[in-house]
Protein 1
Amino acid sequence: MKLQNFKFHGNGLERFFGPLEARIMTALWDAEGELTIKEVQQALNKDKEMSFNTVMTVMNRLVDKGILSKKAVSKSHRYRPVLSREEFLEAQSKELTFELVQEFGSRAVVHMVDALEQVDPDLLDQLERQIKQLKKER
Amino acid sequence: MWEARSRWLLAASLSVSAFVAAQMAMFVLKVVFRIRLPFVLFDYCVAWFRYIGFPISLPLMSAVFVSTLAVCARQLVREAVFTRRFAGMLRRTADARLSRRYARRFGLDLRRLTIIRADAPVAMTVGFLRPRIVLSTGLLRMLEPAELAAVVAHERHHLRRRDPLALFALSLSRTALWYVPLLGWAEEKYKTAIEVLADRHAIASSNGGAKELGSALLKLLRQGGAAKVPAASASFADASVNVRIRLLLDPHYSPSWRPPVAATLLSFAVLVLLAALG
């Protein structure tokens, strides 16, 4: 799961989600279980009136992104986050670190190794043989 | 040899940039404020370029100068954005406990070393004025203690020399003065030189000699998915990483330092032209 359009500003979940998405995720994580759209809407209504349709649209979009899972129970659907809040934040920061380090290269960074694609495989094999040899000698 | 060359490359590149900046300043004084400077020689140069049919025109030269300023501004903004994002990333992923422990182990100031929680093996030195070494937990897991010590010694050399700052200055010169192709060559060679120097420092400061550094380098390259099949061309023979491996295999290896002829000629022509306009 990899989120596009990461926002570097803001705090907590709003870095990864739109404002409404963040509130929905918070409601689901706080509930620690499965909720229906109606229940999520009620939780959100404590702060601000939300229409059922808006909540449904956003929640289904989160299902499409693979962040929520949806299960049919009797007549309605119940939703739950795929990852716990901690797992989610950890997974996101891993993705982010990797991206920042690997792709978003700065000019003011000196990497221990870069330009991996330029490595001559024959030289690498030679190095491997030499290191093995040296380790044997000791 | 590498030390002297790296200093020479940096000094030469920065003087070229300073020269072009001075020429631009004089150009602005002359064109905008109508101040004549007493450089009769340059007028001869202009006359000569006109004579050989080189299209010197005010709009063309202004376009070159504006592009230089625009590239400079763009790079500085890009760098500022990166710095901000990077600082945010560090705040979110830094492991304070591990950072303290390793800073103590390697005798580094806590502001000079950050351990981040990341699976990818990361070893780098980043920052202009207050550079710091950034290592990842993935790297700590992957390397043996002696290999890690070699990597830290390598990065410590970058840290002490403020290599990130020098690299940024060279990169800015190369992109802003795109019409002086020799700067690209200088940047490449400088990159190689600072890595070789840092490797040497790491080898000298470790008990195991080249073994620990070589072993760490090998792991990093293999783990990072270095090419398994030979590159189609030999164009990377002089690439920094290959020169480093060759030097680990044979400490007396000496790569070619000859600048490319076409780039050199073009660079000098451009500099004379700029001198002519000053």
Protein 2
Amino acid sequence: MIEAVGLTKRYGDKTAVYNLSFQVRPGAVTGFLGPNGSGKSTTMRMILGLDNPTSGTVTIGGYPYRKLPNAPRQVGALLDAKAVHGGRHARNHLLCLAQLSGIPERRVDEVLGVVGLQDVAKKRSKGFSLGMGQRLGIAAALLGDPQVLLFDEPVNGLDPEGILWVRNLMKALASEGRTVFVSSHLMSEMALTADHLIVIGRGQLLADMSVKDFISANSADFARVRTPDTEPQLREKLTSALTEAGGQVLPEQDGALRVMGLPLPRISDLAHDADVRLWELSPHQASLEEAYMRMTQGAVDYRSSIDQRAGLQQPLPPGAQPPMPVPGQGQPGWYAPPPPQQGGQPFTPPQGAAPAGPYGGPAAPGPYAPGAPAGGPNPYATPGNQAPAAPAAESSPQPSAAPVAAPAQTAAPADLTKPEDAR
Amino acid sequence: MAAVQVIRSEWTKIRSVASTVWTLSLAVVVTVALGMLISALSRSQFDRMPARERLNFDPTVVSFAGMTLGQLAMIVFGVLVVSNEYSTGMIRTSLAAVPQRATFLFSKIAVAAALALAVGMATSFAAFFLGQSLLGSHRTEIGDPGVLRAVIGGGLYMTLIAMFSMGVASMLRSPMLSLGILMPFFFLISNILGNVDATKKIGRFLPDQAGSRIMQVVPRVDDDTPYGPWGGLGIMGLWVVAALTGGYILLKKRDA
């Protein structure tokens, strides 16, 4: 059991982790997600007592790591696969770690077998591929047969066979009642491996819930409904019928309707009752990846530049949909999905954290905040703007209560280029 | 017992990298070979030396002449032993396994210092005997007063210089930075400060200037050094203690 309470880490005036509280329970694989630079590794280092928190505590089994009796037999960690002396044999690397923890030498050969490195045991780790390095790191974590395991990006550089192996290993370790805490940004992998998720963005907790809850809380499952294009009145009729039945109906750019809050059979029934023919009725389910992207958009520190992406989009004909990571985003009439509720805190930028940073400006309501007096140019304020918005200008689905200035700021430059695109 | 475990582990670490063998054997070869060369030259040049230099002629010091360069290899050894952990990132794994940072650092330094002592002693005795054998009639004997002290002191000097480098490296962490400061300092700056009249009074309290006093047997004419051979080695020891303490305090306080 790993427990963090109010964990905060500052490097100078940069806040890496802010007021993070969570628990990692035994018997389950807990995924630790967040964009690059969101504080995942810093948190892991604090758990291991390598970095001292500025404030707050983190304990393993009730002890801070540095006070944990026989720590290496209780906790195993893979922090950085490249953190080995390249001139040392794989076996010697593990041997010195084993001796450091008072682990008998035969265990070294055991774990080498477990991770499949027995044939290169006497090879210098300099020549190892990234995948072999990861296996060596995992072997080091398994040395003490610990009850608590931490893995920082364990599948980076592994081949499909290795990924499958890591996935099964994590699950097997958790099923033995161990605490397994895995950071990653491979969402599809986490969806298959993890039972529980802790999501952070820019050092703060965004969500702490099971994978299932996370997807349903952060994704807007919807149905796409299309009425015959030739008869627009049918569309109006269906919209009012569905709204009356309690559904949320949003028009899509191509004339289809996006219906939320009603199951597919019910939509069909309602359409039948209203005597409206349907050309399309399709379910759309969000994946963990989509749910994650929605949640963390506003919390991404490093993203590809707007100009570059806008430039790439220029050849697209007006009105065409650019490939988008999250369907619906950037289209006129796209609304923010429901904010994360259970377990997740509304995301507010830490006070005093990088005030001059691109996201740290005075909080202005996001473009989608209800009744928001748009402080800057709002790309979506004009209905009927057929220009495809740059995905980089996508607004964040932040809870309207605590929006970030980011969307307005990033949207502005993209918006300026848009009329040219449309021409 | 944690310290025993760390010592065993550090021994595995130190013997399983090539840099240990390279730096230490370089220290032996350079010190001994250069000492032999200078000894042979001194023997052939002795008659042409000015009287004052002949009076000051110290055969023990002559056979240790290679140490000026040999100590640089010892410095590299000391720096690499510590900073390897940082440059590879291994320090995180190590400290995760041994959260008691004092145990970790001092066990590491104990292992490396013991190895440096063994190599340093062997070097010192080899340099002395091989050097003396080339000095011919100007040679001295190990049994002469002060000579055994000087030869043992030579081994201790090499150990202390390696330990001082370990302390500096654990403060600075980067191998390049540590070597970039230590090498020119001990090869040039300290020698200049210790021999120029203006700075001599302070310069001779620098670690290598004070420590190398132990290798002198024949007292210099008009010598006004305020410390004796063991006093000098003691001053060097204080420098080592200071460097190691600094390294420990920083390791304890700093994020790994």
